[in-house]
């Protein structure tokens, strides 16, 4: 019986691997709900070359905002052809003094390449709180491991441009300042868990759109 179960398990693994190889791609059907393994596939008969082309990263984003920066994403929701392939991309435009605030991608690691300007970037180790921080110039790349807090800001005197690639078609994103101050959690609670005074919390909630 034990031998039979071992053979059955091995056959199941081989069958699943063989099945995966039979499918060249799985363009996301965005009309259906996302699943833990990605979006369901569009019918092959409805797939066109346009499903594998995305032009949204060729246009500079609007940096006239609070953070003086813009992020154009090519995650699966914007680029269905990425579905199931384990990668996504984005474009970062940073005006002078522009900043991409502390944030995480729970489901993917990130690599950045600087195209123009000078960008300071870093991440914080979850296990030791050590900070890995570097000034990046044109052509430099840096990697940010999955799930770790990281940031980028323009250190130079001209606008900066960078592109990022991530190891998941839908890596997720949570911006720390928004999570803390753009919510309806009572000000007193936020002050208690952040060790900030109530006046500062109210100020930050006012800037970022939080209530209570």
Automatic annotation (TrEMBL):
Q: Does the keyword Lyase apply?
A: no
Q: What is its main location?
A: secreted
Question: One GO CC annotation, please?
Answer: apoplast
Point out the signal peptide segment: 1-20
Source domain of life is: Eukaryota
Molecular function as annotated in GO: manganese ion binding
Keywords of the record, alphabetical order, are: Apoplast, Disulfide bond, Manganese, Metal-binding, Secreted, Signal
* Positions bound to Mn(2+): 103, 105, 110, 150
Annotated S-S bridges:
26-41
Amino-acid positions noted as binding oxalate in the UniProt annotation, renumbered to this chain: 105, 110
Q: Which PROSITE patterns match?
A: GERMIN (PS00725)
| Domain Cupin type-1 intervals | 55-202
Q: Which PANTHER family match?
A: GERMIN-LIKE PROTEIN SUBFAMILY 3 MEMBER 3
Q: Which family does it belong to?
A: Belongs to the germin family.
Q: What is this protein called?
A: Germin-like protein
